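Fold it.
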Amino acid sequence: MANAHLRSKIDIRPALTLLITASLMLGSGSACAENGPGKKMPPPIVPIETVKTASVTIHQTFSGVTLAERQVDVRAQVSGILKTRAYVEGQKVGKGTPLFVIDDKPYVAALNEAIANQSSAEAALNAAQRNWNRIKTLYSKGVASVKERDDAQSALEMAQAALKVAQAKKVAARINVDYTRINAPIAGIAGRRTVAVGNLVNVGDTLTQIEAIDPIQVILTTSADNPYADSPALKPGPDHPIPATLLYGAEGTKRVDGKLNYRAVSIDPNTNSITLRGIFPNPDQALQPNEFVRVNVAVDKLDAALVIPQTALTSGIRPGSHAVYTVDSQNKITLTPVELGPMSDQGQVIKSGLSAGQRIVTDGLVKLRPDIVVEPYKAGKEKAGKE
């Protein structure tokens, strides 16, 4: 009886295993039927745009550095002890603003001496004039000799010359007194003083520097190989300035409109570059000398250019080449090689490879491959009924 029961247990297990395996195979077959090769994936939903012609402006952006419009070294024109600094370093000063005072005592004394010498020369001239008048009268009456007449005339002329010398020395002495008070020669930002009060300064010593930064200059360069290097837009001059926009701040978000007004005559042989100069208003002194900035210039205008969004570009078959996905009437896409023109204010200019009226995919290119069918929608609009 025990043996019969054991045989019954041994016989049931293989049957149960076979039943479970059959059930799993049946379920797997049902899943394959649902997701098998007969079920097609939906076509990718992509934005498209019809290629059109447009009038576009071509801009180029150049790197540059700011410079003061004028920069003047303030120098001592007389020697002496520096008594006073009358300005705040880094302060904006107007033309004629007092900056420094040099001890004027020796120069005032020299001026007083020159004034006295002039008075003496004037007295000597008056005496010579009276003597000449007397001798001239006597000579006309035959009383004075020729020698007396000539001596009186010479004395008068010497007195006249001596007075002119005295007058010139007085002017020079007054100028030296004026030079002891040093004023700003131009309006601008007064820099750090180079000599402390109490020190002796000599003629020609630099005391500070003033920089005029409104307007401010920008020096920029472009390669001599730039295809627009010889265009009128990059040939400015004093009589024909070129509009330009200066970009500065984080990400170039701040803009100032100005102009280019100079182009170097020759090309720099070391860098194969051409130097240009721009000038831009800077009333708030937001720009300081030696800042790195960018300058945007409109270098050309195309009346009927093929323009596409830059997001429509992908890599071509050849290394370094470019292509777009064109969409035919059956919504089938083709990888179409294109030759790029310049970038414009409206998008990428296409030199060749496309025609007006063709449809192109403008985004989502990474999920595409040539010769597949897509579900297009017009770029800029919502995907109707699609997630």
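The radius of gyration is 46 Å.
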